[in-house]
Write a structure and sequence with these properties.
Distance between the termini: 31 Å
Strand order of the largest sheet: 2-3-5-4-6-10
Radius of gyration: 18 Å
Order of helices and strands: EHHEEEHEHEEHEEHEH
Structural class: alpha/beta
CATH architecture: 3-Layer(aba) Sandwich
Strand content: 15-25%
Helix content: 25-40%
Number of strands: 10
Largest sheet: 6 strands, mixed
Length: about 325
């Protein structure tokens, strides 16, 4: 799904993420991002967040992948929309639906938003895309990691939030649509759903209420190494690293540093603190990315567990801000 700025033009995850970004030297014990200002210091005495059920999340990934290719405008995509909505039955859900005018024609796009209220004024968004690569729609490409794992982890996070009183900010889960390019990743051929949603939320004032935007993408790789993203907000990246450290999983974070183009960018550009949790080195030489080899056997419940737990711990830290 994403494009890496320092790369030659490749098919990106959404046709946008180029295949293998050039990695910088391994990071030290902490991310290289500049120190956060005092007002963004990591809160002390933050309690433990709930842990996700990785076995259940992997089952969701299996069920999502079983639909086959799920590009925008396809019957399988529509089936997946209904699958997500069925899992959210009884929750507060709204859709941001529109028609995207693309280089390949017009396509229906639908961002799905589930809202879980908190006691504090403000919103934390956790997002991930559910569409799969459009140019590979006829190549038996199922996107187990790229599209499947992000869909599933949001469904499992919903389980952890549903029916529970939050002594923090409201959390909105957003299954983003149209993340993938329909031809070749560019600023105008990618991120259709989040570009529309960010513009909508800016117009209606929602954007001012957002305390953080956390994006999960390609997070199931059995050889997990979440990249440090130079396009993300430095202090929020630092908080993610600190959350991972508290959970003892920091060795899976920030070995590589690169600039990633992904669904967080429309929010970054509007001043929302945003971070992309993504592993853009999928298989040796990134060989599984945007290939029919992006299948369930390349994923691990441990990786999903790590990312899900770190996301929730980061949410609890932002609650205490």
């Amino acid at each position: 799904m994403i494009a890496v700025c320092a790369l030659l033009m490749l098919l990106g995850c959404s046709q946008g993420k180029p295949e293998k970004p050039a990695a910088t030297p391994p990071a030290k014990d902490a991310p290289a991002a500049q120190a956060a200002p005092a007002e963004n210091a990591v809160p002390a005495n933050v309690g433990p967040a709930p842990r996700i059920n990785a076995t259940r999340a992997m089952q969701y990934t299996k069920e999502v992948t079983a639909f086959g290719p799920r590009p925008i405008g396809s019957a399988n995509h529509k089936k997946l929309e209904e699958y997500i909505l069925n899992h959210l039955r009884g929750d507060e859900v709204e859709s941001d639906s529109f028609t995207a005018d693309t280089i390949e024609g017009k396509f229906p796009v639908r961002n799905i938003i589930a809202k879980y209220p908190g006691t504090k004024e403000g919103i934390i968004v956790i997002a991930g895309h559910y569409d799969t690569n459009y140019p590979l729609r006829n190549a038996k490409y199922v996107g187990a990691n790229d599209g499947g794992s992000s869909t599933a982890i949001l469904l499992e996070i919903a389980n952890q939030l549903r029916g529970k009183k939050r002594d923090g900010y409201s959390v909105w889960l957003v299954w983003t649509d149209g993340e993938e390019a329909v031809r070749t990743w560019t600023a105008t051929d990618s991120l259709y759903g989040t570009r529309h949603l960010a513009e909508k939320w800016q117009a209606d004032g929602t954007i001012k209420k957002l305390k953080a935007f956390l994006l999960a993408d390609m997070i199931g790789d059995a050889d997990l190494n979440i990249d440090e993203d130079e396009n993300s907000t430095p202090w929020l990246e630092e908080w993610i690293y600190q959350a991972a450290t508290r959970l003892g999983v920091q060795s899976h974070f920030f070995e590589r540093k690169l600039a990633v183009e992904d669904d967080h960018l429309p929010f970054v550009k509007r001043g929302v603190p945003s971070a992309d949790l993504i592993d853009l080195d999928y298989g040796y030489g990134n060989v599984f990315h945007h290939s029919p080899q992006d299948t369930l056997d390349k994923l691990s419940p441990k990786s999903v567990q790590i990312v899900g737990d770190v996301i929730l711990q980061t949410v609890w830290m932002v609650d205490a801000k």
